[in-house]
Design goal:
Elements (H helix, E strand, L loop, with lengths): L11 H11 L10 H12 L1 H17 L2 H4 L2 E7 L2 E6 L2 H21 L7 E6 L4
Parallel strand pairs: 2-3
Antiparallel strand pairs: 1-2
Length: 125
């Protein structure tokens, strides 16, 4: 009886590995300029600087003038904007304006996702 040979099926792992080599990014080929620029901005921290600058100007626009010189907007973490104030009386004064400030900041910088403001006493620098 003659033996029939069955053709071998390609292994799944080998095929996936070959396909990975064919992609331009994996082979060191061209990449989209948007991904390159966003990667560089994140690596060098420019996106954080730009965000901080945008937040500072928005803060100066929404905060009452009487509180502006004694406060500075900081970072936004999990939707909470940290504000540094020069003395504890300003912490209490900010509490009276908190709801209005959050509403106005949400309109000015919706990308930050601000839901609350937390004040702490410190030095403005």
């Amino acid at each position: 009886m003659a033996s029939m040979s069955v053709p071998k099926r390609p292994q799944a792992g080998r095929k996936r590995q070959e396909n990975r080599r064919d992609t331009p990014a994996a082979a060191g080929g061209p990449r989209a300029i948007g991904s390159v620029v966003s990667g560089l901005m994140a690596r060098f921290g420019y996106d954080r600087e730009q965000s901080a600058s945008q937040m500072e100007s928005a803060w100066n626009e929404v905060v009452p003038e009487t509180l502006r010189s004694g406060s500075r907007a900081g970072l936004v973490r999990r939707g909470v904007l940290e504000v540094v104030v020069t003395h504890s009386a300003l912490v209490h004064e900010m509490a009276f304006h908190k709801h209005d400030l959050v509403t106005r900041l949400q309109k000015l910088v919706p990308s930050e996702g601000i839901t609350d403001i937390r004040c702490r006493v410190g030095t403005l620098s």
